[in-house]
Amino acid sequence: MQLGVPAVVSLAALGLYLATTARTITWSHGGADGAELSAAAATLGVAHPTGYPLYLLLAWLFTLVPAGEVAFRVALLSVVCAAIAAGMAAHVVAAISSRQSALGTQHPPLRGLEWRALLGPAAAGFGLALSSLFWSQATIPEVYSLHALLVLLLVAATARWRRGDDRSFVVMALLAGIGLGNHLTLALLLAPVALYLLVEDPGVLRRRALPMAVAAFLAGLSIYLYIPIRAAASPALNWGNPVDPASFLSHIAATSYYGYIGNRPTADALARVPVMARLMGEQLTWPGLALSILGLSEMLCRRRRLTLALLGYLLLTLLFTLFYNADNGQVYLIPATVVLALGLGIGVASLATGRVGAYLALATLAVLIPWQLWSNLPSMDLSSDQEAALYARGALNSAPYDGVLATERDEQTFALWYAQTVDGLRPDVAVVDRRLADREWYRDQIRRSHPGALEKVAQ
Predict the structure, then answer these.
(1) Which of 26, 35, 101, 298 is the most exposed place for a label (fewest CB within 10 A)?
(2) Is the peptide bond preceding residue 50 cis, with omega within 30 degrees of 0?
(3) Is 169 found in the same domain as 51?
(4) pTM of the model
(5) 110: which residues sit within 8 A by CB, 6+ positions away?
């Protein structure tokens, strides 16, 4: 029964996401990067920093699926990861709210009103699956659904871990390394988790399993070796050409984006707090957010230190999003939505402890799920979105032979790159991004592929 609700949540989310997934490249939901990521995956190339090697390798496997065009196949990776993540949220809540404390133990047979044990996991899973931020990334080629899944896997491993549990300790280290191979913001979770381990077991750094954990972490992190290996092969998409140690380290550390961190004035950041609060309230609905706060309070009583670690992660995520001055920065709130969804599940489970509360929790769930679905479905359905693809084809087809298309936005550049490298459309046309034209690696690539194009743009 413990696996029943997570499985139902995952399957329902899978069907919903498949129906609303973008069938081609899209600019919706901040998905401009998806065209570049799809092209890099299809050609085993090197994407923009940090390179996202784990994502690209998994996405390349999905490009082999014989269904639709490449961008749709890559989007299927997001679909699958998001659906599994929603089920994992239900699984974590089932474990925390059960009478057993260790993750993975079996519930006793359900009798009478014990069906109420299913309500909390269902609330967490469906609440997360139907939240607008999470759903928006589940249907486009992007890295954030995989990131959410890795966050939940690490949270699940942390919840399972107990003092002396070397196996879970090593698994956590491996997940940490692998997770950083997808998105560096996983470090925001690693800090509170590491503190949690040290407080729970002050001798954790003296355990015999520590060398194995370090090795597991490095093994996961070694996924970044993909970048210089593929860069040396000169793939069609080779951002930064990071073949030497200096350029490789700069690429995986995303040093070119450091200017975005803390670049938002404090006054502007504070002005965004009400906007962020409203956005977070909309994710689970305001009644759902109230139940989430109730659930997190309940978790403080059951698993105080674990809950403090999750709240620390929530706070770090909110602060990072506030002060990271980049377009589409709201996607960095997805991990915060994950934490709040877990709180929602515990809140519903706590409400359902009594006979009357069980029926009230059931009624609440019967309202919240349709509310989220009705509110978000119109804006989440990308199944007929063709704007980006039509732009790329139209721009390339209208260009003269051996012509130049100068671009100044990711939406334009990446869509054109995808059309050329994946669809093979108009390779004679030089696509020159003016923002990249001052970078030597980019100028070298343009000179090799389209001699004279840079000079035409400069005129």
Answers:
(1) 101
(2) yes
(3) yes
(4) 0.94
(5) 1, 117, 118
